[in-house]
Amino acid sequence: MFAGVNNIGWQLPRYKQTRKLPFIPLESEIDALIAGCGSEAAVLLQLLEETGMRPGEACALTWHDIDVERTTTTVNNPEKGSNPRVFRTSNKLIAMLNALPKNHEKVFGDLIGKKASELLWQARKRVAAKLQNPRINYIKLYTLRHWKATIEYAKTKDILHVMKMLGHRNINNTLIYTQLINFETDEYHSAVAENVEEAQKLIEAGFEYVCTYENKMIFRKRR
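Below the sequence we write its predicted structure tokens.
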């Protein structure tokens, strides 16, 4: 408005945000933080570590979403337009959940993101000082989602599996997790198959399947 009134030539600058790779802690660091938290915060962190769900999705869980017999947890209220999903949870987590008071429809009562972050901030500061490990101060609630996705991709090399686990509808949102592990790609040959016949030939030649992207199957073979 100022430029227009004063007849000054001006063009709106364009900025391109640089996307930074998230911090990925060690599993031992996460477990140490969980051990140093109070009961409610510890259960929340254990849940996020095992499932990779968003903190808001975890805080929205109701007791109807927890199946003790099948040891599963269901996300019926996904965020950011994601898909609902079901997670197999450990007996340890089920026991921790059962120990929580059941005086509210929601598993974590009136706990919301901001309050949960405050609980975590207090715990991580205390644990980081006790263990003399400043890296623990970088662990946030959302960090556990990045950690889980990265670990699952490292184990399976299946980007579609990770995509489904995170509830993503667009695989491009999932592909960032392939950048978080330092794979020695120079030790492999890679190949792309566009149909079943090409895929069969690659398998017969010793290639192993990695994932499917944009209807093309990606394979690799150690040099």
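The CA atoms of residues 26 and 44 lie 18 Å apart.
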